[in-house]
Design goal:
The complex is a heterotetramer, with 2 copies of chain A and 2 copies of chain B. Chain A is an alpha/beta fold. Chain A is built from 5 helices and 13 strands. In chain A, the strands form 2 sheets. A 10-stranded mixed beta sheet of chain A has the order 4-3-2-1-5-8-10-11-12-13, with helices on both faces. Chain A has a 3-stranded mixed beta sheet with strand order 7-6-9, with no helix packed on it. In chain A, a hairpin with a 2-residue loop joins strand 11 and strand 12. The radius of gyration of chain A is 17 Å and the shape is globular. The mean pLDDT of chain A is about 95. The longest helix of chain B is centred in the middle third of the chain and has 13 residues. Chain B has 6 helices and 11 strands. Chain B is an alpha/beta fold. In chain B, helix 5 runs parallel beside helix 6. The relative contact order of chain B is 0.19. The mean pLDDT of chain B is about 95. In chain B, the strands form 2 sheets. In chain B, strands 1, 2, 3, 4, 8, 9, 10 and 11 form an 8-stranded mixed beta sheet that branches. A 3-stranded antiparallel beta sheet of chain B has the order 5-7-6. The chains are: A alpha/beta, B alpha/beta. At the A-B interface, helix 3 and helix 4 of A face helix 4, helix 5 and helix 6 of B.
Chain lengths: ~220, ~230, ~220, ~230
């Protein structure tokens, strides 16, 4: 079973050279810590920053330099700053090759729900709806089940949707899944997790073909 | 050159009234028009519609207008970080229209650019698209989104000149340039107001044509919401 | 009868303080030479320049600093440079208060034709269609009649249109006209030109109310 | 940082082929991608569709491609100043699609910004609107206009860095930034290519994300069409 950092580490293996990447808040943010050697990627923050660097050294933080999670950040040499219309032009125009974000639920048709729970305070979708409607590659970082042990990998989403038919890949604490043909294809197991455990934790249609390898981290 | 300078925030806000629709720049607490917001809080105006990506925190930014119940409706993409907002929203005192961030940014730009409507894929198939026209372009579904119609836009820049030209700093740019384009009256407060000729015309982010009033702001707090360091 | 410079001079009297103004090629360009005292205006050139100044001093001309007529120009202190999308955002969004342009024909309903003569080489409309469809104030600078003495102030345009119902005011070599209520209202006569001459040169519905003063230049 | 540098114009144009749709920056002869155009003239490719505000003059800019009959269709707002263009157009050898300049600029931006279509008032009631959807917004009629789909965009900047960030100079900016956003492959030629870190990130006109290939151009003629002086 993976912890949050390991989920991020596994997702980082999906990064391809020369990709621009938008990382959502939470586990996705951690992906930046595990960029594979030899891979050049640039991180986009949708509030208006390309070439996002690490957090600033204490004492150098600047109120005018934050990321989409409102955290103080730095900008790398070769980065650029722009307004929010330009930022979402990049996203909507598919210039950002990969979006990594969290989810409350994913359905086997690729639907994703991650912004609203009826009856609870709704904070808003921020840029998530633009990101999922636009990105060619969307990887969801999430726990396979909720706190009550119920699957979040579903036949159909029960929560209000963020986007339809858009999720291509999921990395959970238990497995790596491809989402296609109205099914979840099991690609890899987390270390020490059996196919049966994954089947049990998956409500949606799970396809298991041949031997399923363990993830390498 | 056309001179846009007003002497202070009081003069800059001449004409604001209850029931109006405002745009306010900023992302989180970054790049918000602090002086204009403080002055709006002092005015006896209410029933405002505020278009702003976020709603501030309880005691800073738009949160101050919420505390005084001056806002009737918020149009935003994300409104967390604010207990009073939550209370008013759940009790039904406050109307809230949540809009995908990119759609919000593009609708602001469209307002200023004379584009009454455009198609975007964001929100298709979700409740955001309910009641809206949708349409297939090259096999992908899109939603028709419209421009706004704000009476005032309040923006904050790093530097500005007397002709209204603005330069923003870092990620404090965010929604400010598009909102500056969109206001029937756009009020710009700047950290540093300079004479014409001091800014490089090749580096202006917002040309002065979009700004009706500009003033030198003061006492900037520039609060940091999430101070993260290495 | 006015010459081209006098037409420009008369149009300059229409300038109001704090207006941003777009001047078309030809007579309209000359308007910049006659800005009334005490009136601050800024000229916009739709290729991406605000605060356009006079032509450069010989030897200082810069290939990277031209106006919409492709002439070398200068930029004044307080001017700004921007791309063509931003430039037409200003125009379409009605941030430019006045457009002055030439015309081949104007009709009494405000239609304007100034870009195309069937059977002749068509050079294109450039920014004219955006300008006339957007501007709140459009003043047309033109000769009242063509070289064959035929009126260009018409009941209906015969040439392909540039814009519909948009012209508000016309300054010709003979007269100043308001365009409203599907008519041309005669406001002023050029020095030495009689009302009868103007009536004769006007094919469209010309309304003459009371005494028509001579223009003051 | 992602490095976008290619060693010369030959490498920059790898993949161009007959029948493709190109965008080319510039207004008149100002800010045109001189090196790319010269190289296109050398290639044995034809049946090109060229989206460019103008078509150059007889012996410079796109006029050179016209001389060699490499262009099948021009999409422009103004095409005067060019005898060969006129000849080919009148003889029917050359297809010409004339588009209002602001609509052309906005369609280029829309292409890059993932906006498949938008409404503009420009051209309503004229032959430009024939066959297009029209619609009333607040009592004013508008025309629905669509994005393009170019394979390559060729742009010219003043300075650029190895990450593809671009800064334009003066009115040579014109259509270049929107076309840079719009190309499936965007090729930028620059007067001065610098290392990352040398350009102020706050003053970038075109962020590097839009540029796939960048190279140091050479032998810029920068011809002036109308030399006017005081």
């Amino acid at each position: 079973m993976l912890d949050k950092n390991q989920i991020a580490q596994r997702i980082a293996q999906e990064l391809q050279n020369k990709w621009y990447v938008n990382l959502g808040i939470g586990i996705p943010t951690l992906v930046a810590n595990y960029i594979p050697k030899g891979i050049d990627v640039e991180f986009q923050s949708e509030n208006g920053l390309l070439g996002m660097g690490p957090f600033p050294i204490e004492g150098t933080e600047d109120a005018d330099m934050i990321n989409a999670g409102k955290q103080t950040v730095t900008i790398l040499d070769g980065g650029s700053l722009f307004d929010s219309a330009m930022s979402f032009a990049m996203i909507r125009g598919q210039h950002v090759q990969l979006t990594v974000l969290g989810a409350m639920e994913v359905a086997q048709n690729g639907d994703i729900a991650n912004w609203k729970i009826p009856g609870r305070m709704v904070k808003g979708m921020g840029g998530a709806m633009d990101l999922v409607a636009s990105a060619e590659n969307i990887i969801v970082a999430m726990m396979h089940t909720n706190k009550r042990g119920e699957s979040k990998i579903l036949k159909e989403c029960s929560l209000p949707l963020t986007g339809v038919g858009c999720v291509k890949k999921i990395v959970t604490n238990l497995a790596v899944l491809d989402v296609r043909d109205n099914s979840f294809y099991l690609l890899e197991r987390a270390p020490g997790v059996s196919v049966e455990e994954i089947q049990q934790a998956t409500e949606g249609n799970l396809i298991v073909e041949g031997e399923i390898p363990e993830m390498k981290l | 050159m056309i001179n846009k300078v007003v002497k202070n925030v009081e003069e800059a806000l001449e004409g604001v009234a209850s029931g109006m629709e405002f745009m306010l720049g900023g992302f989180g607490l970054c790049g918000i028009p602090e002086n204009c917001i403080s002055e709006l809080v002092k005015r006896e105006i209410s029933d405002l519609t505020c278009i702003s990506n976020n709603a501030g925190v309880d005691d800073f930014g738009l949160g101050q207008l919420l505390q005084k119940r001056q806002i009737k409706k918020m149009i935003s993409s994300y409104v967390g970080e604010n207990d009073e907002f939550e209370r008013q929203m759940l009790s039904g005192e406050l109307e809230v229209d949540l809009i995908p961030q990119g759609t919000l940014a593009e609708r602001c730009r469209a307002t200023g650019a004379g584009i009454p409507a455009f198609y975007t894929p964001a929100g298709y198939g979700t409740e955001v698209a309910e009641g809206k026209e949708t349409r297939d372009f090259k096999g992908k579904m899109h939603v028709l989104e419209h421009a706004f119609n704000p009476e005032f836009a309040f923006v904050k820049a790093w530097k500005g000149d007397t002709a209204g030209n603005l330069i923003f700093k870092g990620t404090a740019r965010n929604f400010n340039p598009m909102m500056a384009m969109a206001g029937k009256i756009t009020v710009a407060e700047v950290e540093e107001l300079v004479e014409v000729g001091e800014l490089d015309p090749n580096q202006i982010h917002t040309p002065g044509i979009f700004v009706q009033r500009i003033f030198q702001g003061k006492d900037y707090e520039k609060r940091i919401e999430q101070r993260t360091v290495r």
